[in-house]
Design goal:
Elements lengths: L28 E6 L12 E3 L4 E4 L9 E4 L7 E5 L11 E8 L5 E8 L11 E2 L6 E2 L4 E7 L9 E8 L2 E2 L3 E6 L4 E9 L5 E5 L2 E6 L10 E8 L6 E12 L3
Antiparallel strand pairs: 1-18, 2-5, 3-4, 4-18, 5-17, 6-14, 6-18, 7-10, 7-17, 8-9, 10-11, 11-12, 11-13, 14-15, 15-16
Length: about 250
């Protein structure tokens, strides 16, 4: 189907066909975006905790800009990148990231919210290390894939949450992550601490009171090794939104 040619300007009109936008467009929400086009991971945007791993950004090698997470060869060692603790369910916070995993059986990856910017290594916010669901975070919610997951399967993509130290029942997306596949993970919070999980734009689960409402949280990506070889995870972009404080 041929593309649609449009003019250099798009005019938004209301029901009376009069223009209803004046001046430049401005988002009504707080919006954080990183497409990793800088020559190093921004210390102004991210807190980075590296333990026997490296975080590297190389926009000249990876088309469009990507974050490269390379694991060390130590089993279960983990690393984190996290924003400041400024995201809240009361403001309908949303986190989204597009991620590629090279070897799904050999790594763990998590995208979501947590009440801490890192956990003492090798702990991650929520994971299946040892085969069963466990949490180092007090309040956290997100989507993970864990090569150690023996409950849903080693490549299963699941929505998870921990509420004041109590694990919630995980939501299985019924989708397995394949080697070398890109997936877009998205978590939406509501003002009662509830969460909705999305995989590639499609909702696959909802968790009531996933976290303690009103908890200040960071947007966090956690990665861990699940073997004895160096593995790679690529993050194409990260976005987060929430309502402005009033």
């Amino acid at each position: 189907m041929p593309g649609l040619n449009i003019d250099r300007e798009i005019e938004f009109r209301n029901k009376t066909h009069k223009p209803n936008v004046k001046g430049p467009m401005q988002e009504a929400k707080v919006h954080f975006h990183d497409h990793f086009t800088d020559d190093a991971l921004s210390g102004d945007s991210w807190l980075s905790t590296v333990t026997n791993h490296t975080h590297a950004v190389n926009h000249s090698t990876y088309a469009g800009g990507q974050l490269l997470i390379t694991t060390d060869t130590t089993d279960n060692e983990s690393s984190f990148i996290a924003t400041p603790l400024c995201w809240e369910d009361d403001l309908n916070a949303i986190a989204e990231a597009k991620i590629l995993v090279t070897d799904v059986s050999a790594v763990y990856v998590f995208l979501g919210f947590s009440d801490a910017t890192f956990e003492a290594t090798p702990d991650t916010p929520i994971d299946y290390s040892g085969g069963t669901l466990a949490a180092a975070a007090t309040n956290a919610v997100g989507i993970l894939m864990d090569g150690d997951d023996t409950v849903n399967g080693a490549s299963s993509i699941v929505g998870v949450g921990v509420l004041a130290g109590v694990l919630q029942t995980a939501d299985d997306s019924a989708t397995d992550w394949a080697d070398g596949e890109w997936h877009t993970l998205r978590v939406e919070l509501g003002p009662a601490g509830d969460a909705v999980f999305f995989l590639d734009g499609v909702s696959f689960g909802q968790m009531a009171t996933a976290i303690t409402s009103g908890t200040k949280m960071c947007v966090i990506i956690a990665a861990a090794n699940r073997g004895s070889s160096a593995e790679t995870i690529y993050v194409d972009r990260v976005d987060a939104w929430q309502d402005e404080e009033v």
